[in-house]
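FYI - complex with flavin mononucleotide, inputs then prediction.
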Amino acid sequence: MKKFVKSLAVVLVAISTVGCCSEKQCGETCSKEEAVYEVIMTRRSIRDYKEEPVCREQMAKILEAGIYAPSAINMQPWAVRVVDNKEFIDGVTAIAVASNPKIAEQSGFRNLFRNAPTVAFIACPEESYSGEYDCGLLSQNMMLSAWSMGIGSCCLGSVVPVMNMEEAKPYMERLQLPEGYKLLVGIAFGYPAQDAPAAPERDASKAFYVE
Ligand SMILES: Cc1cc2nc3c(=O)[nH]c(=O)nc-3n(C[C@H](O)[C@H](O)[C@H](O)COP(=O)(O)O)c2cc1C
């Protein structure tokens, strides 16, 4: 009996960890599959946030999801730095606004990071086999896991030239990126202060079978 209970436990753990859809036929769905699909399909770039930073416990889970992304030969060619310090965010914003005052004219403008209170800076080695690709996978893992917790996000390529400005050097230094790393994107994170917008149209013709 003890042996049977032990084997049953092993099977249940295997089903729950390996993937609940392993026994399903093509065309059938299961709850895990539906949950993942729902998160992927409803995630949108959020461009307005509440002022409260993302709780660090939730952010730890988001970071863990990020670093569990695949990477070529498991090189993990990334450096992720999370900032939820208003002084840092406002300081970088001031530099951006000084160089282009127009950005502050947007209604409700609070900061350069789409008003987000928490920003993750993603960097990879300048010379790397697949650093940018791997960081993309890490970033998407972070954004999807955030969305599954009701936390919005927006990938921000536009913050990179600002962070690379001479005036922003002290902020770049505070990120303590490893030698030879370049900043790829900032990712805004926060509790949404807007409803998720409609999905911008996707072009399904870009992906097809080749017979
Ligand atoms: C590498 C990258 C850079 C981006 N940079 C910006 C940006 O600077 N500002 C912005 O508002 N959105 C930015 N986005 C978000 C895209 O505009 C957005 O993902 C796209 O329009 C599709 O919308 P969705 O994310 O809601 O599906 C960026 C997205 C990626 C992947």
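The beta strands are 79-83, 118-125, 152-156, 181-190. The domain at 51-190 is CATH 3.40.109.10 (NADH Oxidase).
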